[in-house]
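In the present case, backbone shapes were mapped to integers, as reproduced here:
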Amino acid sequence: MVARRLFLFVISLFICSQTFGQHSDESSRIKQLNIYQDSLASLGKKIVNDENDLERKNANYQFIKTLVSALKINNSFLFPFDSVKSISILNSPDNRFRIMSWHVMNLDGSYRFYGTIQLNSGGPLKMFPLEDYSPLLKNPEDSVTDNRKWYGAQYYKIIPVYAQKPYYVLLGWKGNTVKSTKKVLEILSFNSGDKPSFGMPVFDGNGKSRKRVIFEYTRQVSMLLRYISDQNLVVFDHLAPPDKKMKDQPETFGPDLTYDGYKLKNGRWVYIENLDMRNIPSNSDAEYVDPKKQAVKDKSLIHSN
């Protein structure tokens, strides 16, 4: 009887020590991730707000190194990094992956985009860095690319589509030049080995199928691009030139107070003209705010304090 009690006592001590060790490891992991998060938040503010071009790019270089180090920590997928406001972090609704995307403004007012896709591996890091290949894509609406030839953007919405080959629609903001801004409807799917692929001919309209849809408009205005989930509908402003003579100058385009959309039907997106916005709920996804305008707002707040 004494031996049995001693055995049970030893077993309980072992279990307690294991549990304590696990709690200690978890506490250490979260502490380390919080340290990285603080560094990323500070570097992110510099990337957006610093007026010196070289300083912005140096901060971005350090940001990438710090982010990779943070993501290498076991089970980092579960850490939200919600204090890092300078980047977009979106989890897919099925929790299969998350995509992180951000931009750096160049000296000439154009943008370069950065990002990564992190898979929910349940342990060690599995990710695919995204390399902005935009300037070299000749026909981006007709191109299927991989993560090394990414049509860079900063995403704000993921829409899963459970077709014969499942895929995801990404809504993204794509700052362009000092004259124009772009938004994009991107398609993300995964090939064997979970390798990401961008672009798929699923947008039907005007007698052709597009692999992604790109909108360009003057930087002086905003454009609506959002998803209405209960209608399986992506709705957007119809863009038009201020004068018919400028029909070949998309940097002059702006909303003309009409709306078009893409409706999901049998796994494909069918173009619809002249949507009645009275049937569109107003409490849907917020429009993405131009980060440059937000940066100006942030600076004014800093100077006023």
About this structure: Residues 87-304 form one domain. The chain has one domain: 87-304. Helices lie at 2-49, 53-71, 291-304. The chain has a mean pLDDT of 88.
